[in-house]
Amino acid sequence: MSPHSSFLIKLLTVALKLLIVVLVAWFIRDTLLKAWQQLGRQTWNWQPLWIISAGAIYLLGLLPAGLYWHYVLKVLGQQTQLKNTLRAYYIGHLGKYVPGKAMVVVLRAGLIRAPRVDTALATVSIFYETLTMMAVGAFLAAGILAVRLREERMFFWGAIALMIISGFPILPPVFRFLAQLAGIGKSNESTCANLSWPGYTSILAGLVCMSVSWILLAASLWATFRAMGVDNIGLFEHGPEYLAAVSLSMVAGFLSFIPAGFGVRDLILLELLVRLFAISDATATVASAMLRIIWLVSELIISAILYFVKTK
Predict the structure, then answer these.
(1) Closest listed residue to residue 291, CA positions, set 272, 269, 263, 259
(2) pLDDT of residue 102
(3) Where does the chain have alpha helices with state H?
(4) Phi, psi dihedral angles at 262 (to 5 degrees)
(5) 8 A C-beta contact, residue 210 and residue 136
(6) Predicted confidence band at 48 (pLDDT cuts at 50, 70, 90)?
């Protein structure tokens, strides 16, 4: 390759990275402005320490899911360090604010790229981890809503439908069939051999990891209420309600394919908060908007920190 061609490729690579950054920044700005507008002009007794706590709990809640993705990469035969996996996982969340969800895959697969990491298998692992999280979230929501909102079966059956949509592709036989249908590993024997995984053990591991994640995300919603000065809806007394509200709204938002589920996630969360906690529409609206802002700002902060972490 001539020096001129090499320089041109490097220039195009830099330009592409800058374009990705600009796209992500633009859609994050749009999401943040919409969420801020939802807060309206109502006055709340904001508690800064609880706002920070809600963000910290959210980031902690993502950790088990990131660890599960690392597990998936390892059993797929990919050699990557845990710090690199978690770095890619957290930064990759910014991609969900770009239409189509594809930017999540682009960011994660690009950041995890290494000589001993197959890009095709890395992409497969991202879909597998994400669908596992969505399936577990819908499963938990369905179980809780079947008891807590027995009179409103729409939410229960909606959770069941979402669980089937996200859970069916991760069943081992279905997963292998879909991977073959997509042509993954067709031209690489080692890649094809690694796709003999997953088994039902991986589903069990995902159930455990993702359940912990969802519980912590529910705790972040509780901390958001505390940040608003609402202290009469305790976490231990209403833990299942927090869990159902967060999980069902997030799963529905994800499967809507709208950037960050904006609108869909917020509407379902609002409706569930009103029904499960018997609070006003105004309180539920502010909680929903504030939760989105706290989570987005937390993602921006951790991504900015991790971006400058040196990787090998």
Answers:
(1) 269
(2) 79
(3) 3-38, 48-75, 82-92, 102-112, 119-148, 153-167, 172-181, 189-194, 200-227, 235-255, 264-277, 281-307
(4) -60, 130
(5) yes
(6) very high
